[in-house]
Design a protein that fits this description.
By secondary structure, the chain is α+β, with helices and mostly antiparallel strands. The chain folds into two domains: 8-179, Multidrug-efflux Transporter 1 Regulator Bmrr, Chain A (Alpha-Beta Barrel); 198-351, no CATH class. Helix content is 41%, strand content 18%. The chain contains ten helices and eleven strands. The chain has helices at 2-19, 61-72, 136-149, 202-207, 211-218, 227-251, 256-268, 285-310, 315-333, 335-338, and strands at residues 39-43, 46-54, 80-84, 97-103, 115-119, 122-130, 152-154, 158-162, 170-179, 224-225, 273-274. The radius of gyration is 21 Å and the shape is globular.
Amino acid sequence: MIFNRFRDSLTCTLMCILLSATPRAFGEVTAPEPDHGIEFATQPAARIAYRTHTGPYWRLGKAFAEVGVVLDGLPSAGPMFGRYLDDPSEVTAGELRTQVGFFLPDDVDPPSAYETETIPEHEAAVLRVNGPYGMSRKHVALMRAWINANGKSDSTEVMEVYPSRSGLAEFELRIPTRMLESGETEPVAQAEPVEPVENEPLAKLLADREFERAARVIVPLQNRLHGTQADWLVDVVDRLKVIRAIVSSKYGEDGNDVAALVVPIVHRGGRIMVDGASSKRSGSVAVLANQQIRGQILKDLDAVIVRAHLKTVDAPALFEQLVELVERIGHVVAPEQAGEAPTAPNTHLENR
């Protein structure tokens, strides 16, 4: 019930926040097989109307809401789109350019505040997705790997097209492509610097407010996680990104402690390294317990998102809850530095 009350007002903002994760910094990604649904498709020339937003993606919610209102008065226009022009790994959040708008028939004029452009015919890699926007980051990373594996170069630009006026549960990702010239190769990413291993227990780092060092435990550069665990950690980082944005908006300077804790982990989230080998499925008690713990952590992070959005707890209480959650995350990804692992998921956060 609580989630339903705030879901609609938050959907666009959450989508923008999750896309802000750097797709090129996702780490080594195995190119997806054809059955992932990615395909090369010729995009016909199209007229679009848009307003350009400059700034962090998490502030785009209002722009998308305004486009929805405009489309209500232009039944022949649409669908709505977000066109992300910059690579967040190379452009600071405050300078990221995004075009938010809609496709426009030739015989329809948009409101005066909107610019128009005709996108020429071009080829793009296309993936149609049914599901939550939290998957955008993973899909974009896989699409780029697939494009390059098929001998083509991917554009920095990413367009998300939302075909339904009734909701945002379905969307289409488009990345413009071109053939690599003879002898041309995709640029090779620079190797990450070697970092010293943290010897202090995670709990002590958190107690001493050594949040940068604690983030190294959660997302170490040289660590490779198997697919299931890496996907889970990406989901964790995405939720922390949402929490950071909500706290910044709702709590102002009172949320500085939360930002100090969360931001270092979020910044390192794009460096999660995926082991190409899939983890073995197992029905053992230990594996099932670990899956249950991971699932409970995600549920507790979702509960924190709700409380932060509704502001049902003050900033210090929110900070304490997140410290506890970060320590529990450490039990999963770095048990040797987190101390004794919990024997069962901690569920008391749900009742706070």
